[in-house]
Structures are given as structure tokens and as C-alpha cells.
């Protein structure tokens, strides 16, 4: 219940800031078209860039998305499972690559929703990943942060896989390190063996690294993980290991040592619903800055990964339909309507696990301004390629050797959610398709 109150209060705070932005917004356009009611969610790796190289179609498509003053015609938010930098850094990088201005308010990294997990902000948290993880954690609201390097310095004999990093002539004494209350996994680290070892140490000592291991200490301290991508696309011809692969290693090591399943307090990033809920709030904020007075009715999520981008967009669409269904049931009940004999089966179909919700204990909202739908658009410039893999022809097909489930362990596999609303060659075709769907001219 306390988590629910924290979640809702932060959600209301973010929503009120969006409404405030609308009152300050002004609109100036050099094209003649009535504002529509849709927004675009762009994945980055495999859609706009491959590593540090922009995909040619990306620059072309953004010429259709800005007016003659360089202002966006439609709300745009970049939703990536990357999380090894600050939003400002990612925005500057995208601005340079796409040759259009991208503001930090348009960038959503995998860890961005951690801002609403305020119940952990005053706790001592261990952060794992690469890049400025300590700065990122403080920026998200965490006040007491411990890094893997701090643990290595405090306990020099814990990290011994690499013989060159072991103490040589003498063993330095341990330093006092405050007990760790929770673990936050931002993304794949550089030295997997070090992070795997020390995270297991923290879990099995209940956050007190001076203690001996105890597998009877279960459940363990809370673990929050961002970015579940098993694979991602860089410059190489074939996909590379992502943070999801690191999580597979950690989960299996913990299970092998203790016999218990590693449990997550929250799984954040695509495809969890909390990520798309947060992205939708950013889309509304962008719409209000454009001076749009009508609610955003449709979101178009453009991605290259069927198990992250497409699955997530379709899962969020299911959430929207369930929210609409719940609202209709409440209205019918308040009007004295009879019971719907199909209601229970519909409810069962739309039920979601805590993992799919992103660990956020929040019921379906009956907001008037929720989008009506979220459409998924799959491009062929990243993880998915028509030449290398086929989407299941039968949506009810189960996992086979040809269609292996690459999603996270805690997500139920529903083959229907891997089916995109549309399949196009690249992001330029995706934007053109959206404009056609919405009746906008291609300029």
C-alpha cells in the first residue's frame, strides 16, 4: 500500500508538471495542418543508429518531423533501453547524429522510471553498470549510493578472478562500509566476473559484506533491474550481448549457489508497462509544448527488437484496452447495468504479472486522457531482419527451436505480443506510414 501511495503521488507530480508546461507553451508553425492526436516513440539502437553510426534513413525521416523553424510537428520521445549515460548526454548525441534539436525532455533511458520509486531514494543502494552510474543514481533521486569500485576498495580480497587484480605483497585491511539496503542494476558492466561475484556477495550477506554467506537469508534484499534486452545491435553484423544476458548469468549463479530463484522488486525498461506509462507522460508533455489541446489518442512505437520494442508496445496496448474495459465496467455498474457474462474472461485475458507492470503496484487508471491505442511498427535495420528470421505465421505458435523466447524469465511468453501492427524496411518508411495512417501530408 505504501508503494502504491508513493507511485501515485510521484505520478501526480509528474502529471502536474506536464500541465504547467502546457500553460507556458506557445505554438508557431510554418505548415498548414490541424493538429492531430498522435505521438511517436522511437527506439534508438537499430532504428536510428548502429553503434555510433547513424542509419541513413533516420536523417531523412526527421526532415518530415520538423518544420521550417526546426520545431517538431508532432510529439516525439526517444525510448531506449540504454542507460549508461545522462539524458543530457544522450540528447546531445542524438542532436548531432540526426541534425535536429533533441531536448533531454524527449529522451527516456531505461532507468528513467526509477524517479517514481521514491521508497528507495533514501536507502543505501549498490549500483551496477558502466558510465557515470553514481551520477545517474543521484540524478534520479537516490541519496546514498555505493558503487562496485567502492566495494572493491573496502574489501580488497573479494575480487580475485583476475590474478593481476589480487593484492600482491600483503592483504590490506578491510574498511567499514555501510550496510546495503537494495541493489540497482543499470546495465551490463565492463567486468562481468567482478560484478557477478560482488553482487552475489551482497545478496548472500544481506547487504553486510563483513558477514559470512548465508543462503538461508531469503528472500534477499530488493533488486531493481533496468534493461532486459538479451541482445542489441551495434556496428557488428550480428547482435551483441545485452544486459538481459548479464541478468541470465546472475539469476543462474544465484540459483546454483542457493537453490532459490533471484527475485526482482522491479524490472524496468522495455517491455514493462511502467516504461510505456512514463513515456506516454513525456509524449503528453511534448504535445502540450506544441500547443495541442486535444488528448493524444494513438501512440506509434517504432523499434527493431520483437521481444523488447514490439512486445512492449503490444503489452502496453493491452494495458490500455484493459483500462478502457475497467472504466466501462465501472460506468455500467454505476448506471445499474446487469453483469456482463464475458467480463470475467476479458479480465483474465488482460491480467498482467508484477514483472510486466514493471514492479509498480498500481491498478489500471481510469484517466480520461489515456491514449486509445498503441501501435507497434517493426523496422528491419536492427535485431530483426527479414533475411535472417521470420515472424511466426501463426500468432498462437508456441516457442520452438526457430522461435526461441528471448524475453526475461519473469515475463510470460505470449506469441501474439511479438506480432507488430506493421513491418517496414526502415524508420523513414515507418514515419511515412504513420503520416498516411493519420492523414498527414508528406512534405
Descriptive report:
A hairpin with a 2-residue loop joins strand 2 (49-50) and strand 3. The strands form four sheets. Strands 5-4-1-13-14-15 form a six-stranded parallel beta sheet, sandwiched between helices. It has eleven helices and 15 strands. It folds into two domains: 38-110 and 272-329 and 354-391 and 398-438, 3-Layer(aba) Sandwich (Rossmann fold); 114-226 and 228-267, HAD superfamily/HAD-like (Rossmann fold), CATH 3.40.50. The protein has helices spanning 2-24, 56-63, 87-98, 133-140, 148-154, 192-204, 243-258, 273-289, 306-334, 343-350, 427-438; strands spanning 38-42, 49-50, 53-54, 76-79, 107-108, 124-128, 144-147, 182-185, 223-226, 231-232, 240-241, 266-268, 298-303, 373-378, 422-423. The protein is an alpha/beta fold and 443 residues long.
Amino acid at each position: 500500500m505504501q508503494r502504491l501511495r508513493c507511485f501515485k503521488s510521484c505520478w501526480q507530480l509528474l502529471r502536474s508538471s506536464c500541465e504547467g508546461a502546457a500553460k507556458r507553451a506557445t505554438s508557431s508553425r510554418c505548415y498548414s495542418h490541424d493538429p492531430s492526436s498522435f505521438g511517436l516513440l522511437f527506439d534508438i539502437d537499430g532504428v536510428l543508429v548502429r553503434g555510433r553510426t547513424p542509419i541513413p534513413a533516420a536523417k531523412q525521416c526527421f526532415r518530415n518531423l520538423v518544420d521550417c523553424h526546426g520545431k517538431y510537428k508532432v510529439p516525439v520521445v526517444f525510448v531506449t533501453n540504454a542507460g549508461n549515460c545522462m539524458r543530457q548526454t544522450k540528447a546531445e548525441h542524438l542532436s548531432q547524429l540526426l541534425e535536429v534539436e533533441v531536448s533531454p525532455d524527449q529522451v527516456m533511458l531505461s532507468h528513467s522510471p526509477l524517479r517514481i520509486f521514491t521508497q528507495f531514494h533514501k536507502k543505501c543502494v549498490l549500483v551496477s553498470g558502466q558510465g557515470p552510474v553514481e551520477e545517474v543514481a543521484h540524478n534520479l533521486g537516490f541519496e546514498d549510493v555505493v558503487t562496485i569500485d567502492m566495494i572493491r576498495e573496502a574489501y580488497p580480497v573479494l575480487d580475485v578472478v583476475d590474478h593481476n587484480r589480487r593484492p600482491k605483497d600483503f592483504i590490506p585491511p578491510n574498511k567499514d562500509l555501510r550496510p546495503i539496503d537494495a541493489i540497482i542494476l543499470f546495465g551490463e558492466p565492463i567486468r562481468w566476473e567482478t560484478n557477478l561475484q560482488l553482487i552475489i556477495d551482497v545478496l548472500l550477506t544481506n547487504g553486510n559484506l563483513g558477514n559470512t554467506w548465508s543462503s538461508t537469508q531469503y528472500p534477499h534484499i530488493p533488486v531493481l533491474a533496468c534493461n532486459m534486452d538479451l541482445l542489441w545491435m551495434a556496428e557488428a553484423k550480428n547482435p551483441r550481448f545485452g544486459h538481459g544476458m548479464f541478468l541470465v548469468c546472475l539469476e543462474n549463479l544465484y540459483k546454483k549457489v542457493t537453490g532459490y530463484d533471484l527475485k526482482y522488486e522491479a524490472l524496468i525498461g522495455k517491455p514493462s508497462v511502467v516504461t510505456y506509462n512514463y513515456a506516454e507522460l513525456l509524449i503528453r508533455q511534448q504535445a502540450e509544448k506544441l500547443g495541442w489541446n486535444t488528448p493524444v489518442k494513438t501512440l506509434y512505437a517504432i523499434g527493431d527488437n520483437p521481444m523488447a520494442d514490439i512486445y512492449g508496445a503490444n503489452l502496453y496496448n493491452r494495458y490500455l484496452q484493459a483500462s478502457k474495459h475497467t472504466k466501462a465496467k465501472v460506468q455500467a455498474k454505476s448506471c445499474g447495468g446487469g453483469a456482463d457474462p464475458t467480463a470475467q474472461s476479458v479480465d483474465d485475458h488482460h491480467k498482467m504479472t508484477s514483472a510486466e507492470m514493471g514492479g509498480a503496484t498500481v491498478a489500471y487508471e481510469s484517466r480520461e486522457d489515456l491514449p486509445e491505442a498503441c501501435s507497434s511498427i517493426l523496422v528491419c535495420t536492427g535485431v530483426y531482419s527479414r533475411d535472417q528470421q521470420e515472424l511466426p505465421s501463426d500468432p498462437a505458435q508456441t516457442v520452438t527451436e526457430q522461435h526461441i523466447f528471448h524475453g526475461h524469465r519473469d515475463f510470460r511468453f505470449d506469441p501474439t505480443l511479438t506480432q507488430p501492427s506493421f513491418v517496414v524496411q526502415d524508420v523513414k518508411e515507418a514515419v511515412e506510414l504513420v503520416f498516411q495512417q493519420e492523414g498527414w501530408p508528406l512534405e
